Amino acid sequence: MLNSGLSYDEIWERSKEILKEKIPNSTFEPWIMPVVPAKEGEDCYKKDCMVLKSDKSFGVSFLNQKYFHEIQNTINSVCGVNLPVNIIFMPSDVKKAPKKKEKPAEHIVLMKEQIDNLKQMHSFCALNLKYTFENFVVGENSLVAYNAAKQVSEAPGQKFNPLFISGSVGIGKTHLMQAIGHNILKNFPDLKVKYAKTEEFTNQLVDSCQKGQESYQKMKKFRDRYRNVDVLLLDDIQFAEGKKRTEEEIFNTFDALFHLGKQIVFASDRPISSFKNTPDRLKSRYEWGLSVDILVPDFKTRVEIIEKHALRSNFEITREVAEFLAETFDNNVRELEGAYNKVSAYASIKGVELTVESAKEILGIDENAKKITPEIIIEECAKYYNVTKKDILSTARAKEIKEARQSAIYLTRELLNLSFPAIGEIFNKNHTTILYSYEKLKKELVFNKALQSSISEIEKLF
Description:
- The structure is a single chain.
- By secondary structure, the chain is of the alpha/beta class.
- 56% of the residues lie in helices and 8% in strands.
- It has 21 helices and eight strands.
- The strands form two sheets. A five-stranded parallel beta sheet has the order 5-6-7-4-8, with helices on both faces.
- α10 links the parallel β6 and β7 (263-268).
- The longest helix has 24 residues, at 102-125.
């Protein structure tokens, strides 16, 4: 009881009435309402401090970072004194135990949380245990995306919401996305995390839309699966483009989660600007937060990826072999890792030392075969259209140069699977211009027999 004559419970009830007018209901209902003052006799109780406790760890973190001063000032105005305030996380299933049993009780709680998290991770979250931040090799190609992902995982729903990760196939988008999920489960064990591919989302939606008496219940179950979560990780979002029913459901799911302060992360093999057939209202949702690119890793980063894999699998690999793999598989991390897995497994099973020569033999690499690079593609296109490499990389608009440039851009994307930003750097163009050229030629190939023949003849040169 304070000098004001009010108990902590009374002060908090009056404070909530004031806070309800100041704080949005989307925050007040889920995060303020569960908060209660600690009572005398509880371990966390303090005589000269109002300890506010909640069993929502994300809510506690959110309130401490965004609304602590608002809560502190409101409580002080109600009780008329400067009363220290502390907002803490207290699991609802943890009860006060005798001091002599304090450590065993904590151990039991920790074990229960770990078991619950593992069950949730495997059955609900659909996360792969190898995709963690610790296992991700950061290079200049992924530094911004990595840092953004780490910040999201440390304060979900508070900034970079949604986070949109784009990049070409097999360079680490899914790894980063799932690492966010793992880290959130570690930092906020009571949060629900859901990872899914957009194709899975679409298939489940189609199944839920089947006619019949169970249709309503199926749709409700589907929506609960994606909306009753604290963090939604939706991969391969480009798969939804042009599928109106899927896009509508993603839009409504986004709004339902966003307005409750839940974290949303999207991943795509194309940048948002390339989504020409996506409704503007959904496209704008993708752009609300932060969009980051993962580019193709440079040589140094690729070597580090191989060496980290070897260290993790307790396999000895020479620098020469690591550099050979990094040089040979330079466009796709997934292919690079696959090559490492193949050669290391073969060497382990046979019990032989892995050398560059044996790696070539295992992978079936012909030393005399021409290695395709963007430079070789540009040179062959220049020869075919009777222009120069300098012409292709210029801004010239002559018909032959434009055709050569578009063909080179198209083949660089098709043969090397580089991201549009990476191709843009090669051709001295921004990625939207590269995307436009690629899409234009791709559409024209459908009906232009002469163009089909030209592209086919150029491909045979490699």
